[in-house]
Design a protein that fits this description.
Layout lengths: L14 H8 L7 H13 L3 H21 L4 E5 L9 H8 L4 E6 L2 H5 L1 H4 L7 E6 L5 H6 L1 H6 L7 E5 L8 H13 L6 E8 L5 H12 L10 H5 L6 E2 L5 E2 L19 E8 L2
Parallel strand pairs: 1-2, 1-4, 2-3, 4-5
Antiparallel strand pairs: 5-8, 6-8, 7-8
């Protein structure tokens, strides 16, 4: 595989690298750390939420795999970390196939690590932007790896809140969901200020307007609107750490400010 790094600008923070920093990884730069620290200073819960979001990924892949789905489209995969999607999916069923999508060239540099899956299955990586879902669907790596006539687990984990335009976010979800066959699943996690005080919301909006955070928080009703025509599975839309949780409630992050919703649905 050819690796192209000409488009890497390490002076600009990138969500994938900042997320890696919060998860305790090593693949980040000064701008990513500065951005991560600034957000964590304003909202100290964010690091715990990032880690809870990562744990949700494992739970939802096991759930979807347990429902018989053997194909996954993971958009906004980020940098390699323990329990990548293909690792979890192929523990459920070694023949599982996974396509990763991200728009950070540095993820491409690390793609070889992601492509080491079970020989019974397949993994692929393509560099694309969720704001152009048609490019994702037309990409040869997707068409060569996934059979869109068979159910797919679509994973949009902590990615849609980086699309600031509401109509564009909704259109991206709809375009991807429309091509999925019956029996497919859609999993979304998304930042929210639904649990915040007026003061917390004001602080967030000020930070967002100043460019201090690139996360466009959205409310429960807006997120649920993306699931029109789908069957939401239990327990519905809940905090990410509460979705089919396996740990003690006392060990889950609790915040009166920033939160992350999780919701999973099946396409009938």
């Amino acid at each position: 595989m050819q690796v192209v790094g000409d488009n890497i600008d390490t002076s600009v923070p990138h969500p994938a690298r900042r997320y890696n920093y919060w998860l305790g990884g090593k693949d980040h730069f000064a701008a990513d750390r500065a951005s991560g620290d600034a957000i964590a200073k304003a909202f100290p819960i964010v690091v715990a939420l990032a880690r809870a979001n990562r744990k949700f990924l494992g739970r939802v892949v096991r759930f979807v795999g347990g429902e018989g789905v053997r194909q996954f489209l993971d958009v906004g995969t980020g940098l390699p970390a323990p329990d990548n999607t293909h690792e979890v999916a192929q523990r459920v069923a070694p023949e599982s196939r996974v396509v990763y999508v991200d728009n950070d060239p540095i993820v491409m540099v690390h793609a070889r690590a992601l492509l080491q899956g079970d020989p019974l299955g397949r993994t692929a990586y393509l560099e694309a932007d969720l704001r152009d879902p048609e490019a994702i669907l037309k990409h040869a790596a997707l068409r060569d790896t996934l059979d869109l006539n068979e159910p797919v687990g679509l994973l949009l984990i902590a990615i849609l809140h980086f699309i600031h335009d509401d109509a564009q976010a909704a259109a991206s979800v709809r375009t991807l969901v429309d091509v999925l066959p019956s029996g497919s699943f859609v999993a979304i996690t998304h930042g929210t200020m639904d649990f915040s005080s007026p003061e917390g919301i004001a602080a967030y909006e000020k930070m967002f307007a100043a460019g201090g955070t690139d996360v466009r928080a959205r409310g429960k009703d807006q997120i649920l609107g993306w699931f029109d025509g789908l069957e939401i599975v239990e327990p519905g839309i809940v905090l990410v750490s509460d979705w089919r949780a396996e740990d003690d409630p006392a060990d889950r992050p609790v915040s009166d400010d920033l939160g992350i919703y999780a919701v999973v649905a099946r396409k009938p």
